[in-house]
Specification:
The protein has 430 residues and is an alpha/beta fold. It has twelve helices and 16 strands. It has a domain of 164 residues: NAD(P)-binding Rossmann-like Domain (Rossmann fold, 3-Layer(aba) Sandwich), CATH 3.40.50. It has a ten-stranded mixed β-sheet with strand order 14-13-12-11-7-10-9-8-15-16. It is globular.
């Protein structure tokens, strides 16, 4: 397995010098709008396209997807909202040469995030990069370094950070009402039915399946490993920990106030109920300890019909004077003192959708060149929790992590899990 040095840059098949791509310095669309191309427009990407199409300061110049039917459906949605007709492409590399495009929104399966993001940054594009930004730990460092090198805006798709309920939670945390936050917890507890095996077969008509695989290993098409259901497979996704768990880990790290990686990680998991085709456990417990002795705990169970504290996806922020139950479902409730008297509360009533607010923050950052609410550094710290938790689970021992060198001390096996091989031509170059 090839190890990626933290100062190397992954650029896929497109060498920037060879491609002759000029680096842009700011958003400069002729009509004054921010010109955006959306890459991966099935599911989440379709939703992001819908939000962007509703903005008067944004123009969707292109829609990119390896599935012809998917990109055509997204184009119909955009046209129905604002009457525009975005250019449709099947290969994201065509977008890198287009000087009329200011920014890319990348909402592909996880294996493609960084192999697309890095050449896009080198080509001078700003990025809205869906969570998790990285598929393996080392990719997060490459993203941070590339964003700095090319002076680009990167917004990670952790839209809860832009929500009004997170804004209110931040005010409460800053006020000191809860005392000092010593521990936070993130959970993802819900019923997710397992996939049942399906035979391999031909890819659907109009699908460039080799491009869909990209840097992932070559294999025959299988409907389970395609639209919407690819997440349980390590070649493409990061399981439940890297799906809904990414949002909750992000908020737990944010509330804990830590600005570095943890130094100790333990993880346990198994498959106790959901038998089917999956490469991740159906339950996990992970504990992260930081150098200042603060602790972050993650828990998931995807075999239950119920959640925790009334929410499938949520957090608890534990302070010395009280605690807060928080959910990205736009809810918070504070409990104070020994008797847990109820304090401030906020519910979803009348609140705007976080995704619209998060995209607005990104577009404003593209225009004014100020860092967005979830920049590349935040993406790496949050996604690092996903990858370190997964590595600790797979090696079944405590990881002693060095945040400075970004390596696990005295553990070659765990360090190998922080990187991966890439199928040609989507490889690693310096």
């Amino acid at each position: 397995m090839k190890h990626i040095h933290r100062r190397q840059v992954l650029v896929g098949a497109v060498g920037i010098a060879a491609a002759g791509i000029a680096i842009r310095t700011s958003a400069a669309s002729p009509n004054g709008k921010v010109s955006v191309a959306v890459v991966g427009v099935h599911g989440r990407g379709h939703s992001l396209s819908r939000h962007l199409a509703q903005r008067s300061d944004t123009q969707i110049t292109a829609l990119c997807d390896v599935d012809q039917s998917v990109r055509e459906r997204a184009a119909q949605t955009v046209h129905g909202i604002n009457g525009s007709k975005p250019r449709l492409v099947g290969d994201f590399r065509q977008l890198l040469h287009d000087d009329t495009i200011d920014a890319l929104v990348i909402a592909t399966p996880h294996q493609w995030h960084i192999p697309m993001a890095l050449p896009a940054l080198a080509a001078g594009k700003d990025l809205y990069l869906e969570k998790p930004a990285s598929h393996v730990f080392r990719e997060g460092r490459l993203l941070v370094d590339a964003a700095k090198k090319y002076n680009r805006i990167v917004q990670h798709g952790g839209q809860t950070r832009s929500s009004k309920v997170a804004e209110r939670a931040g005010e409460i945390l800053k006020s000191g009402l809860l005392g000092e936050i010593k521990m936070t917890k993130a959970w993802n507890i819900q019923r997710i039915e397992p996939l049942q095996p399906k035979p391999d077969g031909p890819a659907p008509q109009g699908v460039d399946y080799d491009m869909w695989l990209g840097p992932a290993p070559k294999r025959r098409f299988n409907a389970n490993r395609f639209h919407r259901t690819w997440r349980p497979y390590r070649d493409y996704g990061n399981g439940d920990l890297g799906d809904d768990g990414a949002h909750d880990l992000d908020m737990a790290r944010w509330a804990l106030g830590v600005k570095t990686h943890p130094v100790g990680i333990t993880a346990h998991g198994s498959t106790v109920d959901l038998k089917g085709e999956r490469e991740y456990p159906d339950n996990m417990m992970i504990a992260y300890r930081y150098a200042d002795e603060k602790v972050l705990i993650y828990e998931d169970r995807i075999w239950t019909p119920y959640g925790m504290h009334g929410f499938d996806s949520g957090n608890a922020f534990y302070g010395t004077e009280g605690y807060m139950i928080f959910s990205r479902r736009q809810h918070l409730q504070v409990y104070l003192g020994k008797k847990e008297h109820k304090g401030p509360r906020m519910g979803p009533e009348g609140l705007p959708p976080p995704t619209a607010l998060h995209l607005a923050d990104f577009i404003e950052s593209v225009k004014n060149r100020k860092q967005p609410i979830t920049p590349a550094e935040d993406a790496h710290l949050t996604c690092g929790l996903i990858h370190l938790g997964e590595a600790a689970f797979r090696v079944a021992r405590v990881l002693h992590f060095d945040p400075e060198s970004e390596t696990v001390r005295d553990d070659a096996e765990a360090n190998r899990l922080l990187t991966k091989d890439y199928r040609a031509p989507w490889g690693v170059t310096t």
